[in-house]
Amino acid sequence: xxxSADHIRDLVAEYLDRHPVERSLLSGLLSALDACxxxxxxxxxxxxxxxxxxxxxxxxxxxxxxxxxxxxxLAPGGHVEDGDDTLLGAALREVQEETGIPASLxxxxxxxxHVPIDIDVHDIEGRxxxxxxxxxxxxxxxxxRLTPGAPALALxxxxxxxxxxxxxxxxxxxxxxxKLCAAGLDGTxxxxxxxxxxxxxxxxxxxxxxxANKPEIWAPGCWDLLGGGxxxxxxxxxDTVTRELxxxxxxxxxxxEPYRVDSxxxxxxxxxxxxxxxxxxxxxxxxxxxxxGVMLAWFPPEQLTHLTMLPSTRALLETHAADRPAPAxxxxxxAKTATAVxxxxxxxxxxxxxxxxxxxxxxxxxxxxxxxxxxxxxDTWHALAGHCAYEAATDCxxxxxxxxxxxxxxxxxxxxxxxxxMIDKPGDPPRIGLFFRxxxxxxxxxxxxxxxxVAWEWFGVEDLPERVVPYTRAAIEGIRAGxxxxxxxxxx
Length: 492
Description:
Layout: H1 5-18, H2 27-34, E1 47-56, E2 62-67, E3 73-74, E4 77-79, H3 87-99, E5 106-108, E6 118-124, E7 135-146, E8 160-166, H4 174-183, E9 193-199, E10 205-209, E11 223-224, E12 226-229, H5 237-249, E13 257-265, E14 271-280, E15 295-299, H6 311-323, E16 352-358, E17 360-361, E18 364-370, E19 381-382, E20 384-387, H7 393-405, E21 414-422, E22 431-438, E23 453-460, H8 470-481, E24 485-488
């Protein structure tokens, strides 16, 4: 679908807020938006919308290309296509097609962001040979910076004769030249977003599960850091992250300190510089007033590989964990099993809690085939499962079912039907496996995390595959026999 009229109206409104004297100049554009038509279609007359990318390099120069058809030096750009969701998306597509620069090497400026720096109105001569009468272009021009170290241009030879970088006071368009000179933009790339790496001082990280039903946001359905974009009233990016923590989760941290500047790829494909802050907190995430996303939870670094998470976020947290390792285990406890147990009686040993989904339909149970490269039980069938973080067991299972298989469960519809208390071998941390039966509809599970599970299948309870995780087989047999408890590995 091409960009909607509402999307275009919002851009024009923001632009006119900055340049109210141009309202009369854009009267034709405003009329086109009010008409019942397609303002971005090249067949819409007497005028339609085009888009351009104003690319600034590290020295502050602006990219111009020479079009073979006209011989003019212009910013990369062109007509909007049906697959362009936004006008900025159209500009980004055009710059990649014409110069080979992908959106991932471009950074929007904090001064303009997704709002055009200029909307130029110019006349286009008719081309009778192509059946095109004289008309007007309303050219939306978006400004962005090129990241340092970008490769050489790869020009689209059939349409582009050459390229040149011009100083801003030499830019060919008078309206664009005036706005660039007034803005004083140089090639410096500065962060426009801020996020917080929040830890508990014992190795765990507070993560935010983002809404999977909002594909327009960044990292939908992924675990990520709390944070967001800078707003006009934020004097600094510290103000930004402080405000975001308060707005998103009602969280106030007094000891936030700068950590590093990183970058991610935004929802529009452009590179987004992010200033990262870090701080320590020891509270219960379930008691926070979450206003965005699905939930907050604590996770140790070893659990990050089991979460739906952008690789860049996982790498960042692993780096932070390496930079600031958790305290050494107390004397008398092995590094392999020791974890801080605040306020627990002496001799308390932490157990790893795993939740498992027992789904039975027409005498068959659901199992998933783990990826051959999985660190645990590779190429082996297993129940849908996950490790509990700082969360209720039923909440954990609901989350895992959604992340791993796209199944939507209600905690109220989960019944505990079997418990396995086990150790794999002496010296390993003890584990408790909770198996819940779910009241379940007819929707089929989907492979949502192919790096962990490569297939879901239903098996007759009397005809399980040979390669099944042993404690999962024991739990299924126990459930079928009406037993509620199994011990494994304690007696040798």
